[in-house]
Amino acid sequence: MKGLILKDFYLLKSYGKQYVLIFGAMIIYALFMRSSSFAMIYFVLMGSTVVLSSMSMDEAVSFHKFALTMPVNLSTIIKSKYILFLITIGIGTAVSILMELVLTFVSSDARIWISFGREEFAATVTVFVLANAISIPFMFKLGVEKARYINICSMLAVGGFLVISATMGDKIGLSIGRLDEILSSNEFVGLCIAIGVISLTVSYLVAVKIAENKEW
């Protein structure tokens, strides 16, 4: 397991300079626009797409056919991709929070930098988690390129569902602004974490079932 994850990071190391340049550009953009919202979303998005890039490189060299000749089973290979996803989206989330904290101290008026509350940021990360929970099993079934489109459609679908739900809620008097009357900030973040854990668990089980029925 450790070797599979390290293999992915060694492969992704070739993109290291690109990531550094993008991170730097996003920080400069945030300073210029005096808002870190877009940069925070982009960092999490980059973290959530790394697993697709990793799988793409595996497909290019038929790594899975080679790996299955070693003392590694299919479920371990799949599990390593989910762990890679959790690590990279965790890094993206941590960088986003760190950037928000740093930019808060840049300005004399700290409030100008506070773009996301805990609830909004937790909801944003959850959207990316749900989108990847849907697309990763398709990655093993249909391949990376088709899975990319499914990933994009999944994010649009989840985001659209939230917007429609909020709009409908406003019409029937369940405004999202009253959410704090139902759940505290910690409870809402906990709910988002629970949704993420459950969706990834179900996604993993589905991916294993799909992969077992596929000829590599």
Keywords for this structure?
single chain; 216 residues; mainly alpha; 9 helices; 0% strand; globular; ABC-2 transporter permease
Q: Would you mind describing this structure in some detail?
A:
The chain is mostly helical. It has one domain. The chain is 81% helix and 0% strand. It is globular, with a radius of gyration of 19 Å. The two termini are 20 Å apart. This is ABC-2 transporter permease. Keywords: Membrane, Transmembrane, Transmembrane helix. It comes from Parablautia muri.
Q: What is the overall pLDDT average?
A: 78
How far apart the termini lie comes to 20 Å
* Continuous helix count: 9
Shape descriptor reads globular
Q: What portion of residues belong to β-strands? A: under 5%
Helix content: over 70%
- One letter per element, helices H and strands E, the order comes to HHHHHHHHH
- Main sheet specs: none
* Structural classification: mainly alpha
Low-confidence stretches: 110-114
Please provide the count of β strands.
0
Supply Rg. Answer: 19 Å
How many structural domains in the coordinates?
A: 1
Write the layout of secondary structure elements.
Elements: H1 2-12, H2 16-33, H3 37-60, H4 63-67, H5 74-106, H6 118-142, H7 144-171, H8 179-182, H9 185-212
In short:
This protein is mainly α. About 80% of the residues lie in helices and about 0% in strands.
